[in-house]
Write a structure and sequence with these properties.
- This protein has helices spanning 3-17, 20-26, 29-34, 36-59, 63-81, 110-118, 137-146, 172-183, 188-213, 223-240, 247-259, 268-292, 301-308, 316-346, 348-359, 372-385, 414-417, 458-475, and strands at residues 121-126, 129-134, 151-153, 221-222, 389-393, 397-399, 402-404, 409-412, 476-480, 486-489, 492-495, 500-505.
- The protein is α+β, with helices and mostly antiparallel strands.
- It folds into 2 domains: 1-81, no CATH class; 167-346 and 374-505, Cytochrome P450 (Cytochrome p450), CATH 1.10.630.
- A 5-stranded mixed sheet has the order 1-2-8-5-3. The chain has a 3-stranded antiparallel sheet with strand order 4-12-9. A two-stranded antiparallel ribbon has the order 6-7.
- The mean pLDDT is 91.
Length: 508
């Protein structure tokens, strides 16, 4: 056997090894589901690259010498940057910038392990982009306040359909203006007015699940689909005053089918922008309707917004953000309800406790913030639903002795910080009573975000969660079809999609 017959396979292997991060990412099913267009592009890139290497190996094997040297250089550079001590001399914190493995997508406790390993500030890599992680709410708030003027948000794709972008990712001065306008429409009076409607919708949907899930051939019903059927009409009613039995509902539903942020399918950018522009025009016409006949206008956030702001203030950026808020409210509340169902399945003793406490209230259920239902929602948010904030630095900054380079992203781990053992005893245990008679500061517990970018619709989401968990926990026995595991669907951990369950109504 000649030497070149030994070297050629080695060179091919080295050239192929540089694709390992992409192969590993594409093997991750949630990535392919969430970003099918990007996944298809990367599959095509890999196929093209493999075909090129094969062609070179057959027709010009001498070129593989240079390719293998280049590939080996790339692999060695990646491993060099993966050293925890990389950049220490220039002020970088510890941590690996290696592009593999992507353990945060496979281990929900990955960042907590890195905190234990490297300390509260460390570096890591996602999608070939460097990040700095900052642990603890107190430290994160200090960082955000000290560097507010140089931090920008990492814009979501939906921002492309809004003239000045989504409010959460606006620069400080612009954010202050538009947040004030948007917040003026989120009225607690509207939430109170909507509570009977929310209760009625929740009861009807749970009874429907109970009826359909009891059919033996079904094996239960798909919980994800049913939660969307429940929440989307509730959100439209509260934000727009539009009910499913009105002509506008179908039109709005078709718009939001194209706005859908759950999957970034091919061509969705243009469809989303058209749909958002269509919704913006619809909102403007809806506000005009309210102005013509204010007494006939339904109680809703949009009516509250129109009453508190001049028409000139409700520009395309406000209207676009209103559309984005409806989309994110729908997705986020569904996510919260998924976790609430899972918590009652995993910890049935709290469902029993909920029945006992609600039974003491007779026909007037208690779903206030301090009720057991309220504490279950708070504990669920503490443990699971709240995940992280991201910012990007527009210049080099120093914080607690470490340098954060320009254009690097910063991840603030809300989920990990809400499990801080210095704040919470037994931090990984599900114990709603930790909120019994106890108020936590924003430096200790931040379920809806930190600083000035916290969630505008927190009160609404919490109210829906409390009503839902009260009705589910007190009125039904949950019959899961197997174990409900979790999965990472960028950018969140969530109960695994496709889960089926049945409900059995409890005797009155």
């Amino acid at each position: 056997m000649e030497l070149r017959d030994v070297i050629l396979p080695i060179e091919i292997v080295v050239c192929l090894l540089v694709t390992w991060p992409l192969v590993r990412q594409l093997a991750f099913e949630p990535f392919r589901y969430k970003l099918p267009c990007k996944a298809a592009q990367r599959i095509a890139l890999l196929i093209g690259y493999f075909a090129f290497i094969a062609a070179v190996a057959v027709f010009a094997p001498v070129l593989l010498h240079f390719g293998a040297v280049l590939a080996l250089g790339i692999l060695l550079y990646e491993r060099w940057r993966a050293r925890p001590s990389y950049g220490r001399g220039s002020g970088l914190p510890p941590g690996s910038l290696g592009v593999v493995p992507r353990n945060h997508e496979r281990d929900p406790y990955h960042f907590e392990k890195l905190i234990a390993k490297y300390g509260p500030i460390f570096k890591f890599n996602v999608e070939f982009h460097p990040y700095i992680y900052i642990a603890s709410h107190k430290r994160a708030l200090k960082f955000l306040r000290e560097n507010d003027d140089v931090l920008i948000g990492a814009a979501q794709p939906i921002s492309a359909g809004i003239p000045k972008g989504f409010v959460r990712y606006m620069p400080a001065q612009t954010h202050t203006k538009y947040r004030r306008i948007l917040l003026s429409g989120i009225s607690t009076d509207v939430i109170d007015d909507a509570s009977p409607m929310i209760l009625s919708a929740v009861r009807a949907k749970l009874l429907q699940i109970c009826e359909e899930g009891c059919r033996p051939a079904n094996g239960g019903v798909l919980i994800d689909d049913n939660l969307r059927e429940l929440i989307f009409p509730i959100v439209l009613a509260v934000f727009f005053g539009v009910r499913p039995d009105t002509p506008q509902f179908d039109q709005i539903e078709s718009f939001f089918a194209d706005i859908d942020t759950r999957r970034e399918t091919c061509g969705i950018e243009d469809r989303r922008i058209r749909a958002m522009n269509g919704m913006s025009d619809w909102i403007r016409a809806r506000i005009d309707e309210f102005a013509k006949d204010p007494d006939a206008a339904p109680s809703c956030f949009l009516k509250s917004l129109a009453d508190r702001q001049d028409a000139a203030a409700l520009d395309a950026t406000v209207r676009g953000n209103w559309v984005a808020m409806v989309e994110f409210a729908t997705v986020d509340i569904i996510g919260l309800l998924q976790w609430l169902v899972k918590m009652l399945i995993d910890y049935p003793e709290w469902a029993e406790r909920l029945r006992q406490e609600q039974g003491a209230h007779g026909d007037a259920p208690d779903w206030g913030e301090d009720s057991l239902a309220g504490r279950i929602v708070k504990e669920t948010l503490r443990l699971e639903r709240s995940e992280f904030l991201t910012r990007k630095s527009t210049k080099d900054v120093w914080f607690e002795g470490y340098r954060i380079p320009k254009d690097w992203s910063i991840r603030i781990g809300i989920r990990e910080n809400n499990r801080d053992p210095e704040t919470f005893d037994r931090p990984t245990e599900f114990d709603p009573d930790r909120f019994l008679g106890k108020e936590y500061s924003l430096e200790e517990y931040a379920p809806f975000g930190l600083f000035r970018h916290n969630c505008i619709g927190a009160a609404f989401a919490s109210t829906v969660g409390r009503i839902f968990v009260t009705e589910l926990g007190t009125g039904f026995d949950i019959q899961p079809n197997g174990e409900w595991t979790t999965q990472y669907v960028p950018p969140h951990w969530r109960p695994r999609a496709g889960f089926r369950l049945g409900l059995k109504a409890r005797a009155a």
